[in-house]
């Protein structure tokens, strides 16, 4: 006799991660997970070294130093900030706190898939709204919101599209949603975005609106392995999440690394310019080889194998893998002729460009 999992879990298909193993290949260029390909701030690395002295202690449950650094750097209220073990932990807490068996959640077609898993497990019905021309459809979202809707979840800039929703559209959506529907803005790639064309959502939270902004240290700060994310949210949301969080889920090393990273603004500026330059070089090359790229404000590029390319996306992916380059296939988003390439280091992008040119030129 076995113990059955809850029905919501039994019905879930397994979540697929990219296969990062390439046995027998000497040099693997892994561009499948949108991590930062260059090391994090040297100050973050030094902070981790120093944190070793306190390994026998629990980390600070209140995350005070990191929250203070975030408040200072971004001009935010300390009491509206909370950190988690990756933004995924905060998504899980939001799903647990706000999704019940009779609730609905609205997500956009090209959004972060794992959030749907978390809401489904929490008992909610997830409604997915199409993105015509890969743009978040504000009218389409508003059209499916009903009395059961608790959360609307948007990824901005989008993953896998790399596109930003215009600031006016974010504000319009918030204004037209019923007050009791929470708008979650996942800005995992926000640090790469051009501030002029991007709505962070911080001011909207400050205005008292029902909005939660999610951020992560996994992308532009290069700390994916340390597992630190944070949210900026109204006090009633923070109060609910604090009650159900796992205490000390973020290690002391991770808290210290994140604090050092967020205070190192010069390093972030360097990362943005380095990744931006490599991204634009890649887009130019890909277009010249007949691939159809989307403009991106992130550390990845989504492209389609257009009519002038002799290979399908699946064939290109296989042939790149054979040469040691791993990209992310987009089948789970029904984008069967697209691939997503994270921007690697300068050396990785040289190898990728050579291999791609040899396959397509
Ligand atoms: C849009 C988006 N949100 C959230 C995450 C997860 O971030 P974290 O590492 O902070 O859990 C990712 C990771 O790829 C992502 O692409």
Can you describe what's shown?
Helix 2 (42-51) packs antiparallel against helix 10 (252-263), helix 3 (64-74) packs parallel to helix 10 and helix 4 (86-98) packs parallel to helix 5 (113-122). The protein has a seven-stranded mixed sheet, sandwiched between helices. It is built from 13 helices and 13 strands. The chain folds into two domains: 19-39 and 266-360, Aspartate Aminotransferase, domain 1, CATH 3.90.1150; 42-263, Aspartate Aminotransferase, domain 2 (3-Layer(aba) Sandwich), CATH 3.40.640.10. By secondary structure, it is α/β, with parallel strands linked by helices. The longest helix has 24 residues, at 265-288. The mean pLDDT is 95. The N and C termini lie far apart (59 Å). The chain has helices at residues 7-10, 42-51, 64-74, 86-98, 113-122, 138-144, 167-176, 202-206, 235-244, 252-263, 265-288, 313-322, 346-360, and strands at 29-30, 81-84, 104-108, 125-129, 149-155, 182-186, 211-216, 229-232, 291-293, 300-305, 325-326, 328-329, 338-342. Pyridoxal-5'-phosphate (PLP) binds at residues 34, 86-88, 112, 155, 159, 186, 188, 216, 218, 224, 229.
Top keywords for this entry?
Aspartate Aminotransferase, domain 2; Aspartate Aminotransferase, domain 1; 361 residues; 2 domains; 7-stranded mixed beta sheet; globular; alpha/beta; binds pyridoxal-5'-phosphate
């Amino acid at each position: 006799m076995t113990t059955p999992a809850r029905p919501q879990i039994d019905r879930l298909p397994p979540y697929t991660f990219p296969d990062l193993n390439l046995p027998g290949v000497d040099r693997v260029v892994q561009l499948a997970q949108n991590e930062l390909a260059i090391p994090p701030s040297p100050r973050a690395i030094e902070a981790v070294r120093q944190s070793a002295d306190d390994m026998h202690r629990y980390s600070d449950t209140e995350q005070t130093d990191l929250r203070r650094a975030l408040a200072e750097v971004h001009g935010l209220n300390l009491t509206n900030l909370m950190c988690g073990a990756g933004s995924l932990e905060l998504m899980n807490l939001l799903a647990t706190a706000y999704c019940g068996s009779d609730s609905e959640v609205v997500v956009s077609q090209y959004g972060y898939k794992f959030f749907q898993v978390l809401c489904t497990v929490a008992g909610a019905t997830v409604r997915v709204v199409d993105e015509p021309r890969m743009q978040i459809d504000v009218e389409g979202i508003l059209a499916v919101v009903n009395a059961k809707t608790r959360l609307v979840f948007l990824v901005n800039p989008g993953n896998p599209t790399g596109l930003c929703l215009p600031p006016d559209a974010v504000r319009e959506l918030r204004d037209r949603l019923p007050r009791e529907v929470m708008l979650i803005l996942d800005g995992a790639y926000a640090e790469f975005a051009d501030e002029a064309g991007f709505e962070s959502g911080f001011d909207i939270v400050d205005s008292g609106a029902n909005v939660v902004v999610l951020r992560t240290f996994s992308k532009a700060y290069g700390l994916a392995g340390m597992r630190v994310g944070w949210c900026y949210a109204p006090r009633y949301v923070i109060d609910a999440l604090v009650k159900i969080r796992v205490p000390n889920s973020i290690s002391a090393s991770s808290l210290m690394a994140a604090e050092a990273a967020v205070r190192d603004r010069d390093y972030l500026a360097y990362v943005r310019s380095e990744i931006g330059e490599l991204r634009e070089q890649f887009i130019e090359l890909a277009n010249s080889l007949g691939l159809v790229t989307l403009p991106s404000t992130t550390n990845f590029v989504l492209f389609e194998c257009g009519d002038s390319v002799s290979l399908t996306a699946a064939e290109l992916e296989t042939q790149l893998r054979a040469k040691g380059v791993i990209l992310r296939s987009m089948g789970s988003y029904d984008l069967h002729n697209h691939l997503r390439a994270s921007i690697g280091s300068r050396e990785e992008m040289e190898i990728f460009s050579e291999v791609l040119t040899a396959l397509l030129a």
